[in-house]
Design brief:
Blueprint: H1 5-35, H2 37-42, H3 54-81, H4 90-100, H5 104-115
Length: 126
């Protein structure tokens, strides 16, 4: 699975793409609330439509957290098994980058260490 190009690309791009989708969803949610503010003020009871899409939003947030954690584990394992990083301190640098710059660190590693290297240099020879 570590050498599968689909999973490498998915775990590199999914956290950032998901973050962009969450920001877009949040903007749509806010504009929907602000566009309907007059109807919400005139309503007698508690506004049920105010929190209508919040459950779906939280479900997407939980899904993105799981994908982000999966990406973190996937790329830490990939870096540990990468023979190019065994004999220097780059392994530690990459792992710290994965942890402190989650999402963007995996994308940078994918571009530099996977796409930028010949096939024979990647872990497992693929």
């Amino acid at each position: 699975m570590l050498n599968n190009k689909f999973w490498q690309g998915f775990f590199a791009l999914a956290p950032l793409a998901g973050l962009m989708l969450l920001f877009a969803g949040y903007a749509v949610f806010i504009f929907a609330i602000l566009g309907n503010i007059d109807g919400l003020e005139d309503q007698g009871g508690p506004p049920a439509s105010f929190l209508g899409g919040l459950g779906l939003f939280f479900l997407i947030v939980v899904l993105m957290v799981l994908i982000s954690l999966g990406s973190l584990v996937f790329y830490i394992v990939h870096a540990v098994k990468n023979p190019n990083l065994q004999h220097n301190n780059l392994l530690l640098v990459w792992i710290l980058l994965f942890i402190f710059a989650n999402g963007i660190g995996q994308l940078i590693y994918w571009v530099v260490e996977i796409l930028g290297k010949p096939k024979a240099d990647s872990p497992g020879g693929n």
